[in-house]
Amino acid sequence: MPTPPPADSRLCQPVELIAELNLDTVLAVAAHPDDIDFGSAATIAALTEAGVDVALCLLTTGDAGGFDTDRNAEETSRIRRAEQEAAASVVGISEVIVLDERDGCVQPTYELVGELVRVMRQTQPQAVLSFHPERAWDRLQKAHPDHLATGEAVVRAVYPYVENPFAYPELAAAGLPAFKVQHLLLMGSPAERVNLRVDVTGYEDRKLSALGRHFSQHRDADRMREFVTEQLRTVHGSGGYAEEFHHVVVNDPQTISGF
């Protein structure tokens, strides 16, 4: 069963989130195709409809996912990449960037962190949306090892490396200087870390439509839709639909940075 929201988590409208975080560009980072659709597709749909540019960086093509044991990894990779492109178009994602990590083997290595720093410096987001690096014991399926490793790599990239002018000097030499990410929006959080719920009422069907594009991943599509809808309602808590995050302020006018 979905976990009710913490009493001290706040519920906000997408327009309020955009204004508060001063958003015009967001980078979403996921381990596999469909991750972002399960975790935050409705929020993304609301943001893009309001004019925020959202790009998606996939670390893997999900070649180890699905239920068809007769299909080889190369074919699975091709199918799942196409499924993610289709899902991205449903919620208004402007670009899908694909790295070459192996499904099931993601680790927060120096090399992967550097690739994420490169993508962040290219896209210049005010907020990065990705997985929480802490394991969620309330529903272990949220805490796939690739998700945890992705979250850790993203957090390391956001601080200190993307803003450290001495880190990954080859990027600065290639015209990608250091800059500061302002916010992290982390999905799949342990329940006690959730401090933000985004009211996505009216966007729930866009989320379900995006999830429906991942045909290769659903043994029982109807049950998936029921579970996701129930989860959105539980997170909202007052009759609507919401998605939940751990919002971390990385840099604001009061931040004192150090390397």
Automatic annotation (TrEMBL):
Molecular function GO labels: hydrolase activity, acting on carbon-nitrogen (but not peptide) bonds, in linear amides
The keyword Zinc is annotated on this UniProt entry: yes
Domain of life: Bacteria
UniProt KW keywords: Zinc
InterPro entries membership: GlcNAc_PI_deacetylase-related, LmbE-like_dom_sf
GO BP term, pick one: glycoside metabolic process
Protein's recorded name: PIG-L family deacetylase
